[in-house]
Amino acid sequence: MERVGDARGLVLGYVDALNAVDEAMRAAIPPLERLADVLGLARSHRLINRSGQVGTYSYTIHGAGCCFVSDNGTEVDVDFAPDGSEIFDLWRLRRYGLSLPEPLDVTDQELRTAVRSLQPLLTEVRPGWFSIAS
Asked: Which residues share a beta bridge with 67?
């Protein structure tokens, strides 16, 4: 597979992994209506800890987002926009790739090309930051 193809597969894998995290977290924490709600549940309501284990994922809330790590070590780090949408940048995509059971190291340029090839599935919400189109 060519490098851009590898990067495209990595981005699609991240999207799938993020969807799996969302589904698992919402199933395990009933007050969670969307993944971004973890911030409020931990900070304002104190219904969950800032870090912990939910099912097969450990999580750590940070700044404007949360890092989820599956039981096989795969890392899905995501930030949340003010409207609650899930956003990510090239750094988060690279971290995901490097954390895979068979690590995949691609360049930022390869990731940029891959992300552009996946529009309109992905939207650039601000320079270098992307969201899954709804």
From this structure: 60, 77
